[in-house]
Design goal:
With 67 residues, this protein is mainly α. The protein has a domain of 35 residues. 54% of the residues lie in helices and 0% in strands. It is built from 2 helices and no strands. The radius of gyration is 26 Å and the shape is elongated.
Length: 67
C-alpha cells in the first residue's frame, strides 16, 4: 500500500452490507440455535474418541503390562 493512499473497506459501500432486520425476524432465525455447530463438533469428538480407542486396543493392549 502506498503511503498516503486511503483504504476503502468492502463494508463502506451500501450494496455490500446486509439490510437490517426486525428483532422478531432475528429471534425466528436464531430459534433453533447453532444445531449445525453441535453436529460438527459431535462428529469431530466421536472420530477423536474412535481414534483413541484404536490406539489403545491395537497399540497399548498387545504390548502387555509394564514392569
Amino acid at each position: 500500500m502506498i503511503v498516503g493512499e486511503t483504504h476503502e473497506s468492502a463494508s463502506d459501500k451500501p450494496e455490500h452490507v446486509a439490510a437490517p432486520i426486525a428483532p422478531s425476524e432475528a429471534a425466528e432465525a436464531l430459534k433453533n440455535g447453532p444445531v449445525g455447530a453441535f453436529v460438527v463438533s459431535a462428529i469431530a469428538v466421536g472420530l477423536l474418541f474412535i481414534g483413541w480407542m484404536a490406539f489403545y486396543f491395537f497399540l497399548f493392549i498387545p504390548r502387555g503390562p509394564i514392569g
